[in-house]
């Protein structure tokens, strides 16, 4: 017999199965799979939906029920421990988990409804009460403290501070980042080339004030050489590297 149910009443195939089990007062651990499958299929036949995602979920469960029904007709399989396996075991486990989550969601919903009915009164205390601070009796607080005890506490705290110091890293100086303006350094090198025309690379680097300036100057010289604005030559190994302006060479 077809059961007059609506799809909107169920959130999915497990919800429908749980409804059928509770409606027929069936022991969830001993589901009469043939009876439940027949009722489930009756519901599927009544479904009127164009949503294939919803329909496919219910059809997959229908196929699962039919598969379990077929296995129930065959001789039971025996596992490695010699115990007979119940084809319904996996389905029962899924139903129990779903039932637990469903009841938990209903419990949380009830708590939310109860919380919405709870009203809190805004705190309102007289200014004198808010500003009140319990007086401290320093005589009572320090009655058992002696000078030797204070010295002991002081030495202990100083020892803790010393233990925090890294004996290796503490010997390092403070590392500060050198800020070098690349554009200004390019203008500086260009002006130096125009005013000297031919000069020693070593002399140019010696005029820089920091390691970072030396690195940036070196990069600027390499870029100018790449652009063909200067020529670089060295007569012998160990001699100074000489830089000559291309403008001077053309002149």
| Strand proportion | under 5%
Unreliable stretches covering 5 or more consecutive residues: 1-8
Mean pLDDT: 76
SS elements, strand count: 3
The main β sheet shows up as:
3 strands, antiparallel
Provide a count of the helices: 11
| N to C succession of SSEs | HHHHHHHHEHHEEH
**CA-atom Rg in angstroms:** 44 Å
The neighbouring-strand order within the major sheet is 1-3-2
Instruction: Quickly give the structural class.
Output: mainly alpha
Give the overall shape, derived from the CA principal axes.
flat
Amino-to-carboxy terminus distance: 109 Å
Q: What is the helix fraction of residues, given as a range?
A: 55-70%
Tell me what the structure shows.
It is a single chain. With 251 residues, the protein is mainly α. Among the domains are: 99 residues, no CATH class; 69 residues, Structural maintenance of chromosome 1. Chain E (Arc Repressor Mutant, subunit A, Orthogonal Bundle). 57% of the residues lie in helices and 4% in strands. The chain is flat and about 105 Å long. The N terminus is likely disordered.
Secondary structure blueprint with pairings:
Layout: H1 13-23, H2 33-46, H3 52-73, H4 89-116, H5 127-130, H6 138-141, H7 147-163, H8 182-196, E1 198-200, H9 201-206, H10 211-226, E2 230-233, E3 242-245, H11 246-250
Antiparallel strand pairs: 1-3, 2-3
Helix pairs in contact: 1-4, 2-3, 8-10
């Amino acid at each position: 017999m077809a059961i007059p149910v609506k799809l909107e009443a169920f959130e999915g195939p497990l919800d429908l199965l749980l409804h059928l089990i509770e409606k027929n007062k069936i022991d969830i651990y001993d589901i009469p799979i043939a009876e439940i499958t027949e009722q489930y299929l009756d519901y599927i036949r009544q479904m009127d939906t164009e949503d294939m995602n919803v329909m496919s979920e219910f059809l997959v469960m229908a196929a699962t029920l039919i598969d379990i029904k077929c296995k129930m007709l065959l001789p039971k399989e025996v596992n490695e421990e010699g115990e007979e396996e119940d084809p319904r075991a996996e389905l029962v486990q899924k139903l129990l988990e779903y039932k637990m989550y469903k009841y938990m969601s209903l419990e949380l919903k009830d708590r939310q409804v109860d919380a919405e009915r709870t009203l809190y009164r805004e705190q309102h205390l007289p200014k004198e009460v808010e500003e009140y601070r319990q007086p401290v009796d320093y005589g009572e607080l320090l009655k058992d403290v002696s000078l030797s005890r204070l010295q002991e506490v002081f030495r202990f705290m100083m020892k803790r501070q010393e233990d925090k110091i890294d004996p290796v890293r503490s010997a390092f100086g403070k590392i500060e980042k050198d800020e070098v303006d690349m554009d200004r350094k390019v203008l500086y090198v260009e002006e130096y080339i125009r005013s000297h025309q031919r000069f020693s690379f070593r002399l140019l680097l010696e005029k820089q004030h920091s390691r970072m300036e030396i690195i940036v100057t070196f990069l600027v010289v390499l870029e100018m050489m790449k652009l063909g604005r200067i020529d670089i030559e060295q007569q012998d190994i160990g001699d100074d590297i000489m830089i000559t302006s291309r403008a001077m060479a053309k002149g």
